[in-house]
Design brief:
single chain; 251 residues; OB fold (Dihydrolipoamide Acetyltransferase, E2P); de novo design (two linked rop proteins); 5-stranded mixed barrel; 4-stranded mixed beta sheet; elongated; binds zinc ion
Length: 251
């Protein structure tokens, strides 16, 4: 009797890890070719194992995977980029985990999501390697992730009168549209300044290559981060545990 087993190679980010038994590890991978998959790494906990580093959380690696009737086992793994370092502060670590949660919720099992993978990898890079201001990278990631996943807001003009911009506009996070201060009724939307609105338009409408090429004052980034967080959580109704922790450390 022969057992069918195929082998394939793909690159992937490790977005979850769980130790199994003495030395094995079950990892969730956001792969370039198959989207989200779960795979076993035998002997990965052994420090001398070459697989150990490559199958650690927040590592982007090249994997050779054995597929036996839909059960995946990692045969070989070589790290390409590591987005985790022991020197990272708690805010950076928490946001890195949050980006993994976004990948898990918005990625699809067995189906590639190249734009989302590119977003998550770039955000991890700008957060952990370039040390950009964390709330700004968070805001970019949340809003662009919403766009990629079909929750794009309409930021062109006031929904009621067509006004393009006023010093304060209001963003309705339930419906994903703007109203100006003259058309605003009580309780309708979060106030955003022109600086924040320009940043939001850039995040939603720019080509990917330019997505991270802008700066705003930290104070605006902090406010923007609250708006994009409200938007993505209201729109998707997902609970992100890393985000709850993030809120508790920001208080
Ligand atoms: Zn208006």
């Amino acid at each position: 009797m022969t057992q069918l087993q195929t082998r394939f190679t793909t690159e992937a980010l490790v977005i979850k890890e769980m130790n199994v038994g003495e030395s094995d590890r079950l990892v969730t991978l956001f792969t370039r070719d198959l989207g989200i998959i779960k795979a076993f790494a035998s002997g990965a906990k052994n420090i001398k194992s070459k697989k150990g580093a490559a199958t650690s959380l927040l590592t982007y690696s090249s994997f050779t995977i054995l597929d036996k009737k839909g059960t995946y086992r990692i045969y070989e793994a070589t790290p390409i980029a590591q987005f985790f370092s022991l020197g990272s502060d708690i805010e950076t670590l928490t946001l890195s985990q949050y980006f993994c949660e976004l990948a898990y919720e918005f990625g699809e099992e067995g189906k590639p999501s190249p734009e989302l993978l590119r977003l998550i990898l770039n955000s991890l890079h700008f957060l952990t390697k370039e040390k950009r201001y964390p709330p700004l990278i968070k805001a970019i990631t949340e809003l662009r992730c919403a766009v990629i996943s079909g929750y794009s807001p309409d930021l062109v003009a006031c929904q009621s009168c067509g006004e393009f911009e006023k010093d304060i506009m209001y963003f309705n996070t339930d419906e994903g549209y703007l109203v100006c201060k003259d058309c605003k009724e009580n309780g309708q939307g979060m106030p955003i300044t022109l600086t924040e609105l320009s940043a939001m338009r850039h995040i939603v409408y720019s080509e990917f290559a330019k997505l991270y090429s802008f700066e705003i004052p930290n104070e605006n980034a902090d406010r923007l981060s609250k708006v994009t967080q409200k938007y993505i959580t209201v729109q998707t109704d997902y609970k992100f545990s890393a985000l709850e922790f993030y809120d508790s450390i920001k208080e």
